Amino acid sequence: MRSLLEPTRRSKTGPARPVSVRDLAEVLRVLDDDPVASCMIAARVQEFGLDARSGVGELWTRGGPGDSLCFSGANLVPLRGDRHALRAFADRAARWPRVCSSVVGRRELTLPLWDMLLPRWGPARELRADQPLLALGQLATVRADSGVRRVRPDEIDRYLTAAIAMFIEEVGVDPRTGDGGRGYRRRIKSLIESGRAWARFEDGVVVYKAEIGSLSRRTGQIQGVWVHPDYRGSGVGTAGTASVANAVVATGRTASLYVNDYNRVARRAYSRVGFRQIATFATVLVD
């Protein structure tokens, strides 16, 4: 795979524009060239195509998807491009009030893009500049927790309590802010109904949880990993994540997740499961 920042002759002129629906095959090839890092976007494109009317965001390019590509939606995700393309993406994003909650993706693309947006969008709430992107293509190297299972729809209230606690702890804001939590509940409900929310319950209380937040044809990205404070340090997180990763691998996909570099406890647990770093992400929390 050539460098994501490699300059190309076509990408040096013109503004960023929405990708045409005619470019679907080329977009899919680009995403398939980097299947783990592009999982979040590949899952959307594979399900909804490139029609912006689907309401899940749109893809931008400057010179063609093979040269440059960026997703704009709830998150701004640069996928490919040289500095000229990143400047064009920043210019397009800055035309309107910022609506994304974060800028996230491979560090070598995300940080330069944010540097270009910063003078126009103002300071970020938080910058997480070093997030190892991990992948596991075979079954876990530790014993999985057989008590970790898919969450049932009738368990949403108990699961939601844990999900809210995780979100506040990880992101630093309450997901119920603004709409009383209706949007976040819909998101969790959708994950449960699609069989992508996993948990271990003890006496009706969630002691471990995780979701397969994005599921493309080649990768399942695990997110929202959380262990109840009373159970931390007992191996619950390691065994639970092994269970979720095994479920992804059993479908023929690669299991993936990314983690903050400073979270040494989580990184050791993921290493024991068998995850290995393949790249580095960065996340700019905008709101």
TrEMBL record:
Its EC number is 2.3.1.-. Keywords: Acyltransferase, Transferase. It is an enzyme of class 2 (transferase). It holds the Pfam family DUF4081. GO terms for molecular function: acyltransferase activity. The keyword Nucleus does not apply. InterPro entries: Acyl_CoA_acyltransferase, DUF4081, GCN5-like_dom, GNAT_dom, UCP21603_acetyltransf. Gene3D superfamilies: 3.40.630.30. The keyword Acyltransferase applies. Residues 155-287 form the N-acetyltransferase domain. This is GNAT family N-acetyltransferase.
